[in-house]
Amino acid sequence: MTADATDPASQAGPRALARQRRRRSAARFWAGFRTRRAGLLGLAALVLFALVALTAPLTVGPDVTSVTGAPGRPMEGPSGAFPLGTDRFGRDLLGLLVWGSRVSLLVGLLAAVLSVAIGTVVGITAGHFRGACATVLMRITDWFLVMPTLVLAIALATVLSRSLGTIVLAIGVTSWPTTARLVRAQTLAVESRPYIERAHALGGGHWHVMSRHVLPNVMPLVLAQTTLMISSSVLAEATLAFLGLGDPTVVSWGGLLQDARDAGAVSSGDWWYLVPPGIAIAGVALAFTLCGRAVETVLDPRLGAAR
Known about the structure:
Layout: H1 8-11, H2 14-33, H3 37-54, H4 56-59, H5 93-128, H6 132-146, H7 149-159, H8 164-172, H9 177-191, H10 194-201, H11 206-242, H12 253-262, H13 265-268, H14 271-299, H15 301-306
Helix pairs in contact: 3-5, 3-14, 5-6, 5-8, 5-9, 5-11, 5-12, 5-14, 6-9, 7-8, 8-11, 9-11, 11-12, 11-14, 12-14
């Protein structure tokens, strides 16, 4: 049977066919994702947090972080003028919470991308190359895996200068081993398929096989792992900022918690100083976790059947 000459699909070039396959895959993914109520709830929450962070320069502006000319009295409770009260400098805590969302989300996203990128490179390399190369990479991965991630991040953040780049680097280079393990296992499964042998037989080199055949097949796992890693990165950033290792010149949710501790909000019972940043951190972490679990289940239907 020959293809109809008038069929658009038969006349389309390779790039057009690839775009059609990507659109169909995206449509199937969305059809499966929207059946997950928890995932949709997490996605709605993430859209809300993203809108708050993106519109922060318009809604509150950078002047909200200034300690000079603060509009309220220090440690003032919630009121009509200040719905979440004021901090120890008299600044509006609601404005600081909105402005701090930009830093917390940005650091969490960049740290997660760095962590997943390192883990993907190590995992694919260890899964593709056998022998001494894989052994060395996996022993390094095991060393990072057994070491406490927070302790390594604290040590790295202490040695380097206090900045957002240091926080991103500290989280990214200490939290990649789990991704490397998962990607390596998936790479080994892909490498055992017949078309990989045909690619080698036709003269495909290592870079061709890893970039054209292995990487596209592990990308769904990488996507799900990135979504899950962002929540861990947000929590790690808040922890480091709470311990006083963050950038003191910027406002973040973890930095607000550290300011509340330094101001004695715990002992004095000033709950409005502590609760809102904690709820924001927990809310973002939960939203990313719900989305990540939904993405993971859609990309691997066996997980949904197991649950």
